[in-house]
């Protein structure tokens, strides 16, 4: 992982599924969908496909460590033949970063075969796993995703349909999840009742597509139909799409960090456009924390929309202070401070002619450890910036996330041990202000939110 990216919280995964009712091949569509979800996980990826007209046990799968473009080549995709497929990109929150834990998981059990891809994190994994182990279930990974798959397989032995087995499993698991499941004749998708993790439905011709974000639908040539409701189970068969809403309720809590950082700018989640939400974050920052400055700039890429919103509201011109090198390969964290600083400089260069002699407002979406923002401020001042006023479009991280956002432990969170004034001095800024927790709602209107990593108010009992 790049050091620059290590300063950001990590999303767990991205999921994608497609069923072409006309029987056309789907492996390349899954590839395109996963490529557009690459920002949600870069450790491993995989694709599983089956032919719904073939034998019931047929599911072919290819998985590997690394990016989608590294794991899948033309020869891999040609071997994945079938008209129903699911895919996954992973960043580990439970389970080690190993090929063994890569997804989709493929299981052979008494009633046949299924493949599963999961985004999220369960809070009752230990209890469920222990119960299954006591019943003789053997686990091959240390992920909560395998626990879900084993629960479904166990329930399926006693049910008439895979949908009923999925429903029974959903009643047992607690936490955050967006799941796509390939049964040899069906594509099943479900979302946790709180709506913590996003999932949407699209269509391309006579093919139905589900994905973590709407941008993945577009990459596969599909038109967005709607968001899958929190608690909804969708079953896509050769007869069409069927919905089970028996787990749906009005008590939802959508993860605010999807809108602050995780989701891609061109996505729309639960009817909220991500780009517009980040513009509104900058607007709220400018109203609450004005600055006497000549130029507003954002930390690429995630800080730029909020910086634009700040500039539009404050009347201070918006500009680019950094050039981002998009052709830098992934580099490993270096052991010395000097090498760490060089890792940042490899990724971003200051546009000296833009910042020289200017008082700057520097906008970013978060501060985790504070190391990267400190290096960027130092680079700006070395290039001649007169002052750097930092504005952060999220509140300080103070509490752990149990739902799939990988926020470092408290001793690594700079805000858990230091006040904003102390952090300002540590990073070398001339002023520092975080977005107010009460202003987060302005990003998404009336959409109910989970803000527990900021305010310690969890939507379910942990």
TrEMBL record:
Residues that, per the record, bind Mg(2+): 302, 364-365
Keywords: 4Fe-4S, Glutamine amidotransferase, Glycosyltransferase, Iron, Iron-sulfur, Magnesium, Metal-binding, Purine biosynthesis, Transferase
Active-site residues per Swiss-Prot or TrEMBL entry: 13 (nucleophile)
PANTHER family per UniProt: AMIDOPHOSPHORIBOSYLTRANSFERASE (PTHR11907)
Gene3D superfamilies per record: 3.40.50.2020, Glutamine Phosphoribosylpyrophosphate, subunit 1, domain 1 (3.60.20.10)
GO biological process: 'de novo' IMP biosynthetic process; purine nucleobase biosynthetic process
Record protein name field: Amidophosphoribosyltransferase
Enzyme's top EC category: transferase
The protein's annotated pathway: Purine metabolism; IMP biosynthesis via de novo pathway; N(1)-(5-phospho-D-ribosyl)glycinamide from 5-phospho-alpha-D-ribose 1-diphosphate: step 1/2
Taxonomic lineage of the native organism: Bacteria, Bacillati, Bacillota, Clostridia, Lachnospirales
Domain of life: Bacteria
């Amino acid at each position: 992982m790049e050091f620059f990216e290590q300063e950001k919280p990590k999303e767990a995964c991205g999921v994608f599924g497609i069923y072409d009712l006309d029987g056309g091949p789907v492996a390349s569509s899954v590839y395109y969908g996963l490529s557009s979800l690459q920002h949600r996980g870069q450790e491993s990826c995989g694709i599983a496909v089956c032919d719904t007209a073939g034998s019931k046990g047929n599911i072919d799968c290819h998985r590997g460590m690394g990016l989608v473009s590294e794991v899948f080549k033309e020869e891999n995709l040609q071997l994945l033949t079938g008209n129903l497929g699911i895919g996954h990109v992973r960043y580990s929150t439970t389970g080690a970063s190993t090929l063994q834990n890569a997804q989709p998981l493929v299981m052979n059990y008494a009633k046949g075969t299924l493949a599963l891809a999961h985004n999220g994190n369960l809070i009752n994994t230990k209890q469920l796993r222990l119960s299954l182990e006591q019943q003789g279930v053997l686990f091959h990974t240390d992920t909560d995703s395998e626990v879900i798959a084993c629960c479904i397989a166990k329930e399926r032995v006693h049910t008439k349909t895979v949908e009923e087995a999925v429903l029974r499993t959903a009643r047992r698991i607690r936490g955050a999840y967006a799941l796509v499941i390939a049964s040899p004749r069906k594509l099943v998708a479900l979302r946790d009742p709180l709506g913590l993790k996003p999932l949407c439905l699209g269509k391309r011709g006579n093919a139905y597509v589900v994905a973590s974000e709407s941008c993945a639908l577009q990459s596969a040539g599909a038109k967005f139909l709607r968001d899958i409701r929190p608690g909804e189970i969708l079953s896509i068969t050769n007869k069409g799409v069927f919905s089970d809403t028996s787990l749906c309720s009005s008590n939802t809590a959508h993860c605010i960090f999807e809108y602050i950082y995780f989701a891609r700018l061109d996505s729309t989640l639960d009817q909220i456009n991500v780009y517009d939400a980040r513009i509104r974050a900058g607007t709220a920052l400018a109203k609450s924390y004005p600055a006497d400055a000549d130029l507003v700039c954002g930390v690429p890429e995630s800080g730029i929309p909020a910086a634009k919103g700040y500039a539009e509201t404050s009347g201070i011109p918006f500009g680019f202070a950094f050039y981002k090198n998009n052709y830098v390969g992934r580099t490993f964290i270096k052991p010395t401070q000097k090498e760490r600083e060089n890792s940042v400089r490899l990724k971003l260069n200051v546009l000296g002619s833009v910042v020289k002699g200017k008082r700057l407002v520097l906008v970013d979406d978060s501060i985790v450890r504070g190391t990267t923002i400190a290096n960027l401020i130092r680079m700006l001042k070395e290039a001649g910036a007169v002052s750097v006023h930092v504005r952060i479009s999220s509140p300080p991280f103070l509490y752990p996330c149990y739902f799939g956002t990988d926020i470092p432990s408290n001793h690594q969170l700079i805000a858990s041990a230091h006040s904003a004034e102390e952090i300002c001095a540590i990073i070398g800024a001339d002023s520092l202000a975080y977005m107010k927790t009460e202003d987060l709602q302005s990003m998404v209107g009336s959409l109910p939110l989970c803000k527990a990593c900021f305010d310690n108010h969890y939507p379910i009992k942990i």
